[in-house]
Amino acid sequence: MSSLDHANLPNQGRPVRRFGSIALYVLAVVALVLGCRNVSRDHEDINAYMSRRDARTATAEGTVTRFYSNILRSGREQPMEIIQFTAESGETFEGKAVRRGDAPGRHYTVRYDPRDPHNYALPEIGDPGYSWKDAFLGNVPFFVIALYFLWLAWRIGRGPGQDASRLD
Question: Which residue, 84, 74, 82, 124, is CA-closest to 99?
Protein backbone atom coordinates (compact mmCIF):
# COMPACT_ATOMS: atom_id res chain seq x y z
CA MET A 1 0.00 0.00 0.00
CA SER A 2 1.59 3.29 -1.04
CA SER A 3 1.41 6.56 0.86
CA LEU A 4 -1.13 7.88 -1.64
CA ASP A 5 -3.54 5.06 -0.76
CA HIS A 6 -3.72 6.30 2.84
CA ALA A 7 -5.16 9.61 1.67
CA ASN A 8 -8.23 7.83 0.28
CA LEU A 9 -9.08 6.01 3.52
CA PRO A 10 -11.99 7.69 5.34
CA ASN A 11 -10.30 8.23 8.73
CA GLN A 12 -6.88 9.40 7.50
CA GLY A 13 -6.16 13.09 8.09
CA ARG A 14 -9.29 13.63 10.16
CA PRO A 15 -7.52 14.39 13.51
CA VAL A 16 -5.23 16.84 11.73
CA ARG A 17 -8.20 18.58 10.11
CA ARG A 18 -10.04 18.66 13.42
CA PHE A 19 -7.01 20.16 15.23
CA GLY A 20 -6.53 22.70 12.43
CA SER A 21 -10.15 23.78 12.48
CA ILE A 22 -10.17 24.06 16.30
CA ALA A 23 -6.97 26.14 16.19
CA LEU A 24 -8.52 28.46 13.61
CA TYR A 25 -11.73 28.78 15.65
CA VAL A 26 -9.63 29.75 18.68
CA LEU A 27 -7.74 32.36 16.63
CA ALA A 28 -11.05 33.73 15.33
CA VAL A 29 -12.42 34.07 18.86
CA VAL A 30 -9.22 35.81 19.99
CA ALA A 31 -9.47 38.26 17.07
CA LEU A 32 -13.13 38.95 17.87
CA VAL A 33 -12.36 39.53 21.56
CA LEU A 34 -9.51 41.92 20.69
CA GLY A 35 -11.71 43.81 18.24
CA CYS A 36 -14.57 44.15 20.74
CA ARG A 37 -12.20 45.16 23.54
CA ASN A 38 -10.65 47.86 21.34
CA VAL A 39 -14.08 49.14 20.33
CA SER A 40 -15.10 49.47 24.00
CA ARG A 41 -11.82 51.24 24.88
CA ASP A 42 -12.19 53.63 21.96
CA HIS A 43 -15.78 54.28 23.04
CA GLU A 44 -14.59 55.17 26.55
CA ASP A 45 -11.93 57.50 25.14
CA ILE A 46 -14.49 59.21 22.91
CA ASN A 47 -16.88 59.66 25.85
CA ALA A 48 -14.08 61.15 27.96
CA TYR A 49 -13.22 63.54 25.11
CA MET A 50 -16.87 64.56 24.74
CA SER A 51 -17.24 65.23 28.49
CA ARG A 52 -14.08 67.37 28.48
CA ARG A 53 -15.34 69.23 25.41
CA ASP A 54 -18.76 69.86 26.96
CA ALA A 55 -17.17 71.23 30.16
CA ARG A 56 -15.46 74.05 28.24
CA THR A 57 -18.04 76.78 28.81
CA ALA A 58 -15.93 79.87 29.60
CA THR A 59 -14.14 81.95 26.98
CA ALA A 60 -11.04 84.09 27.27
CA GLU A 61 -8.80 86.07 24.95
CA GLY A 62 -5.57 84.22 24.26
CA THR A 63 -2.36 85.68 22.84
CA VAL A 64 0.44 83.85 21.04
CA THR A 65 3.54 84.52 23.14
CA ARG A 66 6.28 82.37 21.58
CA PHE A 67 7.10 79.53 19.22
CA TYR A 68 9.09 76.34 19.65
CA SER A 69 9.62 73.04 17.86
CA ASN A 70 8.44 69.68 19.08
CA ILE A 71 10.43 66.66 17.89
CA LEU A 72 8.10 63.74 17.15
CA ARG A 73 9.01 60.06 17.54
CA SER A 74 9.47 59.79 13.81
CA GLY A 75 12.21 62.40 14.04
CA ARG A 76 10.10 65.00 12.27
CA GLU A 77 9.93 68.49 13.68
CA GLN A 78 6.48 69.90 14.49
CA PRO A 79 6.22 73.68 14.96
CA MET A 80 4.26 74.62 18.08
CA GLU A 81 3.13 77.86 19.67
CA ILE A 82 2.46 78.89 23.26
CA ILE A 83 -0.83 80.71 23.84
CA GLN A 84 -1.31 82.61 27.07
CA PHE A 85 -4.77 83.40 28.46
CA THR A 86 -6.24 84.71 31.70
CA ALA A 87 -9.08 82.78 33.35
CA GLU A 88 -12.03 84.35 35.17
CA SER A 89 -10.23 83.75 38.46
CA GLY A 90 -7.42 86.07 37.34
CA GLU A 91 -4.82 83.31 36.96
CA THR A 92 -2.74 83.26 33.80
CA PHE A 93 -2.40 79.96 31.96
CA GLU A 94 -0.29 78.89 29.04
CA GLY A 95 -1.45 76.40 26.45
CA LYS A 96 0.22 74.66 23.54
CA ALA A 97 -1.10 74.48 20.00
CA VAL A 98 0.22 73.48 16.61
CA ARG A 99 1.65 76.54 14.90
CA ARG A 100 -0.28 77.86 11.94
CA GLY A 101 2.27 80.39 10.74
CA ASP A 102 1.03 83.24 12.93
CA ALA A 103 3.21 85.93 14.36
CA PRO A 104 3.63 86.42 18.11
CA GLY A 105 0.93 88.72 19.44
CA ARG A 106 -1.94 87.16 17.43
CA HIS A 107 -5.15 86.90 19.48
CA TYR A 108 -7.39 83.84 19.68
CA THR A 109 -10.56 83.03 21.52
CA VAL A 110 -9.85 80.22 23.99
CA ARG A 111 -12.64 78.04 25.42
CA TYR A 112 -11.83 76.48 28.78
CA ASP A 113 -13.42 74.73 31.75
CA PRO A 114 -13.87 77.24 34.61
CA ARG A 115 -13.25 74.49 37.21
CA ASP A 116 -10.09 73.28 35.40
CA PRO A 117 -8.50 75.90 33.13
CA HIS A 118 -5.96 73.33 31.93
CA ASN A 119 -8.86 71.84 29.93
CA TYR A 120 -8.79 74.35 27.07
CA ALA A 121 -9.27 74.39 23.31
CA LEU A 122 -8.97 76.80 20.45
CA PRO A 123 -12.26 76.86 18.51
CA GLU A 124 -10.50 78.05 15.34
CA ILE A 125 -8.71 74.68 15.06
CA GLY A 126 -11.99 72.81 14.77
CA ASP A 127 -13.60 69.87 16.52
CA PRO A 128 -12.76 66.39 15.25
CA GLY A 129 -16.33 65.30 15.94
CA TYR A 130 -15.74 61.73 17.12
CA SER A 131 -18.53 59.23 16.69
CA TRP A 132 -19.19 55.49 16.96
CA LYS A 133 -17.75 55.07 13.45
CA ASP A 134 -14.30 56.08 14.70
CA ALA A 135 -14.44 53.37 17.36
CA PHE A 136 -15.70 50.68 14.98
CA LEU A 137 -13.93 51.41 11.70
CA GLY A 138 -10.50 51.59 13.32
CA ASN A 139 -10.93 47.99 14.47
CA VAL A 140 -12.36 46.49 11.27
CA PRO A 141 -9.16 44.50 10.54
CA PHE A 142 -9.76 42.42 13.68
CA PHE A 143 -13.27 41.53 12.52
CA VAL A 144 -12.14 40.78 8.95
CA ILE A 145 -9.37 38.50 10.21
CA ALA A 146 -11.82 36.74 12.54
CA LEU A 147 -14.22 36.13 9.64
CA TYR A 148 -11.37 34.83 7.50
CA PHE A 149 -10.27 32.41 10.25
CA LEU A 150 -13.87 31.23 10.68
CA TRP A 151 -14.17 30.62 6.94
CA LEU A 152 -10.85 28.72 6.89
CA ALA A 153 -11.91 26.58 9.87
CA TRP A 154 -15.18 25.78 8.12
CA ARG A 155 -13.33 24.81 4.93
CA ILE A 156 -10.80 22.64 6.77
CA GLY A 157 -13.52 20.97 8.84
CA ARG A 158 -15.44 19.93 5.73
CA GLY A 159 -12.51 18.01 4.33
CA PRO A 160 -11.51 17.47 0.70
CA GLY A 161 -14.12 16.41 -1.78
CA GLN A 162 -17.14 17.09 0.42
CA ASP A 163 -19.77 19.53 -0.59
CA ALA A 164 -22.40 21.12 1.63
CA SER A 165 -25.26 18.97 0.29
CA ARG A 166 -23.64 15.73 1.51
CA LEU A 167 -22.85 16.83 5.06
CA ASP A 168 -24.67 15.01 7.88
Answer: 82
Task: Enter the DSSP assignment of 125.
Answer: T
Q: Measured between alpha carbons, how far is residue 117 from residues 60, 63, 64, 89, 109 in Å?
A: 10, 15, 17, 10, 14
Kindly report, residue by residue over 62-80, the tens digit of the pLDDT: 888 888 877 878 888 878 8
Decide if 43 contacts 97 (C-beta within 8 A): no
Rounded distance between C-alpha atoms, residue 131 and residue 126, angstroms: 15
What gap in Å lies between CA 84 and CA 71, rounded to an integer?
22
Plot region of 39 (φ>0 → left; ψ -120 to 50 → alpha; else → beta): alpha
Overall residue count recorded for the chain in this entry: 168
C-alpha 79/C-alpha 106 separation (Å) is: 16
Distances (CA, A) of 65 to 2, 15, 93, 98: 85, 72, 12, 13
Rounded to whole angstroms, the Cα distance separating 55 from 85 reads 17
Alpha-carbon distances of 123 from 37, 46, 61, 109, 128, rounded to whole Å: 32, 18, 12, 7, 11
pLDDT on residue 22: 87
pLDDT surpassing 60 at residue 160: no
In angstroms, the CA 29 to CA 45 distance is: 24
